[in-house]
Structures are given as C-alpha cells and as structure tokens.
Design a protein that fits this description.
Helix content of chain A: under 10%
Strand order of the largest sheet of chain A: 13-15-22-19-20
Order of helices and strands of chain B: EEEEHEEEHEEEEEEHEEEEH
Radius of gyration of chain A: 50 Å
Radius of gyration of chain B: 17 Å
Largest sheet of chain A: 5 strands, mixed
Largest interface: A-B, 15 and 30 residues
Number of helices of chain A: 0
Shape of chain A: elongated
Shape of chain B: globular
Strand order of the largest sheet of chain B: 10-13-14-17-16-15
Number of strands of chain B: 17
Structural class of chain A: mainly beta
Helix content of chain B: 10-25%
Oligomer: heterodimer
Distance between the termini of chain B: 33 Å
Strand content of chain A: 35-45%
Chain lengths: 439, 250
C-alpha cells in the first residue's frame, strides 16, 4: 500500500472548546475549519454547550459558518431562558465543510464558570439523486436513471440508449458494434419507431471464416428515398451494405430487400440519416451457414466416408480402400487418409487412389521351391504353391503348400498362417538299392 | 569290411569318410548339420582331436575321389561326455556327434540315415548291413566303399565270445561288453567290419517303412573276422535322448 501524499479529510471527528471540561478562558478567539470528503455533508452534533448567555450572544459565542455565511450563533445552556442553545438538534452543513469560531470577552461576571462546548461531527452522504436540479439548472441530474452512491452518484440509461460522455444524459443507441454470433437481429435505432435524425450508425457482422452470412430483412422496411419506388435514390437516408470485394450497395425505399445472401463471413452495414426527412427504420435477422465444399469424386476400389449429399466447412471425409488395396497419394503409400473441408471451400488434401497390394516375392523354401498357381506379380489373391525337392526332402506331414496373398500383404495358407512349410530330409531310403541275386 | 562287396554308387548315401592325421574312420549323416560317429574317432588316447584336424568327406563311394573334395567345415565336436577310454580298454558310450558349419543339401549320393525308431528292437539273427572304407581282406585298406550283411548276435552268445577271448589272451585287457553295445557277425568268421570302419553304420531295415535306420556304430572287436568272434557296435537306440538333447542344445 502506498501512503497517500495528501490524506483525505476524516469521515468524523470531535471539536471542543479550550480546556474543556474545565471552564474556558476569557478573551478568546479561536476558529476550527472542519471538513469531510467531497460528496458528503458535514453534520455537527453538540454533546454539551455551556457558554455565557447573552442577548444575541453578544459576549461569548460559538459561531457556525459555511462559506463565510453564518448558519448559527450559539451561547447559553440547555433549557436556559437566555442565549441560543442548539439543543439536541444536529446542524447539517450545506456542503462538506464548516467553520466554528469561538469568541469570549474579557470578563466573566457570574460566579458560575462556563465550561464551553464539546461537539462531534461526521460525514453524511449526500443523496445527489434527490436534488431536483443540478446547480446550473440545465435539467435533471441524470436524464434517465440516477443511482446514489456513498460520496457520489452515477447515471444510467434505458435499454437502447447509451450514456453520453457528460455521464449524465442519454442518447438513443445505434446498437452498432461487432456481431460475431452465428445469428442475430439488428435494427435501426428506436425501431419500430422512426429513426432519429443525424444518425451515423455502423454495424459489422463478422463471424468466423468458413461461415457465410445471410441477411433477412423484415417486411417492415422504410428508409426515406428520392425518386420512384422502383428506382429509389438513396440521397439523404440510406443503409449501405458493404461486402468485401464487392461494390457497396445502398438501400432505401419502402420495399424490403428480403433475403440477401452475402457469400461472405463479414458484412458491414452503415445507416445514415441526415437532419431532416423521415425513415420508419428497418430490422433484419442474420443467419450463418457453413461454406460448402465440392462433393468428393468416386475412388476406384475404395470408398469415401461419410457419404453426405453436401459437404460443408469442417466436415471430414475419410477414404478407405477395399480389402486388398492400399492408399496411394502422390505416388507414395499412406497409412490413412482424412481431409477436411476448409474455410475457403476447398478440401485440404486431394483425393488419394487405391492400388492393389503386393505380397512381394514369396519366401524361398530351402530344399524346395515355389510356383504361381494363379494371379501374377504377387498381387492380392495370387496363389502360390510350395514343394520340396523330392525324393530327398518331403513336407512335414500335414503341412499345407498353397498360400494366397492376403489383405495384410502376407502369404497365408488356408489356416491363416503365414509361416512357410519346411522340407524335411528323407532318411534311410537310398535311390539306388543294393541288389544281388547270388545265394 | 571283410568278406563284403563293393557298394555301387549312391547305394549307401549316409556314409561319411573321416580322416585324422591319415587314420581313416567312418561316420553317418543323420541330419543336414549333424554327423554321428564313434567317440574313439574324436578322442584318441584320452585326448580330444582338434576339430581343425578332422576332415569330413561325403558324396562318393571312392575314397580317393572323396579325399580330393573340399572337406566339410566342422563347427564343433561332441563326444559322449561319459566316454572315457584312455587305455583302449573301455568302449562304453562310444558315440559322438559332429556339427557342420554349413547345411548339407541332400541328393542321391548324400542322404541322412534314420535314427532308431521309438521302441527299436535288436532281434538276434536279424540281418543288418555294415559299410566302410576300412580294411578288407589281407590287411588291405579299401579304396572303394564296401558293405556286408551280418546278423545281430544274441547278448549271451556275444558275452561268451568276449569271455573266451579274455581267456585266450590273459595278458591283454579285453574291453567289457556293456548294455550300450551289441554284437553282429557270423561265428565262422571271415565276415566282419574292421579298422577304418569304426564310426560307420550298422543299419537295420524297418519292414513297415522300408527305411534303413542306424542300429549301431562300428566300435570295436577282437581282431577282425576271426572265428567265434564278433564285431561290437554301439547300441544307438540307447542314445536317442542324448542325441536329441545335444542337437537341440547346439
């Protein structure tokens, strides 16, 4: 916390005559300048006042002043016949300050020793709003709503109006600004009442790129025009519709433009009235639609999902190839494909192609061989058959020999295994038997 | 092989010829990376033979032609761990495996021999066949692979033969005949395996599958082809567990 360079006046305090509660000295002239913060009134309450009474408080007195103007002059004692005692009534300053002047004469003829006075003061909030007029008499303090606050006040305006820079008066609001919601309603100031004069209202509808705005004017449309109804000239009052990369269009007359597609994600509306004429005003509801992308073409041996009639901004498509086919893009295989409709109405990736898969050369079989039974180039669904070099090797009993190029690019047998068979040596069976006939 | 015949080409395609410092031995192809032989071919006087000194030849019945071929690369030698014969008197567990560096490709001249079938039996009198490049008649080493058909000899008969040999040569330590061995041969002599054949196969034929299987490995004998004496062979059926484990572990 910073210590303030100048401390604010206190909200309350006490003031007493010299030597109180002892009798005050003679021949005294003392002044107190009391103050509370701006926006408050100062209320002074006496807890005791015992000053030598005299007519008009001629000898000893306590004078209360505001801006050199005497508000009261006190002397005497409570319930005394002489003097002027404040009693229990507090004294309220017109402003936030008061001056007290305590004066005593040279003598005190009475045997009674007067004690002087003791008082406390406090800040009391001013209800500025209850003041009938500001000081300059220019009208109500707030032209519409006034809210009292401690030490101050503030003004506010009804819906459709906005506070002027003077912070007191309200003016009809254009309701302009930026409209970035996906849909909304705009209307001329005060609609359906006639538009005020001297308007220069700007409305900007600006939604996220990828969405396009459509304006839908209500039937109740009237902007002062010159010329015929069919060919109005928007000379003095107009509503100008500006779409990027297009010529601005001024609207006026009594015929509603109705539905107005803009094909843009931003639209600016400028409503102008001069200081004469009459425009009943206008109102419109705007909506937004997602930008449309072209429907993807057919992918041979594959399919595009999801299958929509139309595709819009942020729609995703995927391409999946039929079983046995692989995704190829720009000559290279890709694992998956997904493309999004962009905010410019174009797909972010061009469509891939589906090419048939290839199981590659079948694994060579040691002491055996492999031959193609059907298909070629090792493509999907090609069939090969393994064999062993007979009679020195044979397939292990039960081993399968036919393998088909499967969708996972492996040669698989009818048991779905991709392990090739083994050629087992044939033992103990010479091809040339020892023969002899001699006994 | 004494009293046998020359084996025509490709008739005994599992035959392997081993050579260590000029001494010849036989062995058997049992897989595309494994060869089986007698342990005493790989452990001589209690000392293991270096694998670099072992030359392994396959694919021909002519020893001279074989010796000109490039020997098969040997990856490792695996004599049976319980074979312990420093004094040439204990041929128990006379079996070993040789692992090759490269796989063999089988064809008509190279083919593996089957291992004993489950529950293999050695029936006395059953005719088997033994082959090798070892000594034939008149102490002449065979240049071409020879074979002979010999019957399995009953255990009692074989034990008697060994006992008689012991009795006849009291100062010579005749090896013991154990359950891990069996005998084959004819009592009248003249037909037998001999030096240079050891490690080769004594094969029996399975009647149902018509396949030859390795019943024995040429191991030892008292002399060769002598009357009343038989050749002693390692009983391979006893070692199926060790063979499979050794191949799996290596």
């Amino acid at each position: 916390c910073w210590r303030l360079a100048r401390s604010l006046p206190a909200l309350h305090g006490e003031v007493q005559s010299p030597q109180f509660p002892q009798p005050y000295p003679a021949a005294l002239s003392q002044q107190w300048d009391l103050s509370v913060p701006e926006g408050y009134q100062l209320q002074l309450s006496f807890t005791q006042l015992d000053i030598e009474p005299s007519a008009n408080c001629y000898y000893d007195s306590l004078t209360v002043l505001y801006d050199k103007k005497v508000l009261a002059k006190f002397c005497g004692q409570e319930n005394s016949a002489d003097g002027h005692h404040p009693g229990n009534q507090p004294l309220l300053s017109p402003g936030n300050r008061l001056t007290l002047v305590f004066q005593t004469d040279d003598t005190n003829p009475e045997p009674h020793q007067h004690l002087g006075f003791s008082a406390h003061y406090q800040a009391k909030d001013i209800d500025e709003c209850s003041a009938p007029d500001p000081e300059d008499g220019s009208g109500p303090l707030c032209s519409q709503f006034c809210h009292n606050t401690l030490g101050s006040y503030m003004c506010s305006c009804r819906h459709g109006y906005e506070l002027r820079p003077d912070q007191r008066t309200c003016v009809l609001s254009c309701g302009g600004g930026i409209f970035d919601e996906p849909e909304g309603t705009l209307s001329s100031p005060g609609y359906p009442d006639p538009s005020p004069h001297g308007l220069a209202c700007q409305y900007v509808i600006s939604v996220e790129p990828g969405f396009i705005v459509t304006l839908n004017f209500t039937d109740s449309f009237h902007i002062e025009h010159i010329g015929t109804q069919n060919v109005p000239s928007c000379l003095y009052h107009w509503l100008q519709v500006s779409i990027p990369d297009k010529e601005p269009q001024k609207l006026c007359g009594g015929k509603s433009p109705g539905l107005m597609p803009t094909n843009s994600h931003t639209v600016q509306l400028d409503y102008h009235t001069d200081w004469a004429g009459l425009s009943q005003g206008w109102s419109l509801h705007y909506t937004t639609q997602r930008v449309q992308c072209a429907s993807p073409s057919y992918v041979t041996n594959g399919r595009v999902t999801p299958n929509f009639l139309q595709y819009y901004y942020r729609d995703y498509i995927q391409v999946r190839c039929d079983s046995g086919y692989k995704l190829i893009m720009d000559g290279r295989e890709i694992k998956s494909y997904a493309s999004m409709c962009q905010n410019n109405g174009k797909w972010h990736l061009s469509l891939p192609e589906c090419h048939i898969i290839d199981c590659g050369e079948p694994e060579a079989l040691l002491n055996g061989g492999v031959k193609f039974i059907s298909g070629s180039q090792n493509q999907y669904l090609s069939v090969i058959q393994y064999h062993c070099n007979e009679p020195f090797y044979s397939l292990l009993g039960g081993a399968t020999v036919s393998y088909t190029c499967a969708a996972d690019r492996k040669w698989r047998d009818n048991l779905d295994t991709h392990v090739i068979p083994s050629c087992i040596p044939v033992c103990g069976q010479p091809t040339e038997p020892i023969s002899g006939f001699q006994r | 092989i004494m009293g046998g015949d020359k084996a025509p080409d490709k008739t005994i395609p599992w035959q392997v010829m081993l050579s260590v410092d000029g001494s010849r031995g036989g062995a058997i192809v049992i897989g595309d990376r494994w060869i089986m032989t007698a342990a005493h071919n790989l452990v001589q006087q209690g000392t293991p033979v270096l694998k670099e000194k072992l030359r392994v030849f396959v694919g021909d019945n002519d020893a001279e032609k074989l010796a000109k071929l490039t020997p098969l690369g040997v990856a490792s030698l695996h004599p049976h761990p319980e074979y312990n014969n420093p004094d040439d008197a204990n041929y128990n567990h006379d079996i070993a495996l040789i692992k090759l560096q490269q796989s063999l490709t089988f064809h008509a001249a190279i083919m593996p021999l089957c291992l004993p079938p489950e529950g293999a039996t050695y029936t006395s009198g059953q005719i088997g066949m033994v082959s090798g490049f070892g000594i034939k008649e008149h102490d002449i080493i065979a240049n071409e692979l020879r074979y002979i058909r010999l019957p399995v000899v009953g255990e009692d008969k074989c034990q008697d033969s060994v006992k008689k040999a012991k009795a006849a040569t009291p100062i010579t330590r005749i090896p013991l005949l154990t359950d891990n061995m069996f005998c084959a041969g004819v009592p009248e002599g003249g037909k037998d395996s001999c030096m240079g054949d050891s490690g080769g196969a004594y094969v029996l034929k399975d009647d149902s599958t018509k396949r030859f299987w390795a019943a024995g490995i040429v191991s030892w004998g008292v002399g060769c082809g002598q009357s009343g004496r038989y050749g002693v062979y390692t009983r391979v059926a006893k070692y199926i567990g060790w063979i499979n484990k050794t191949m799996e572990d290596n």
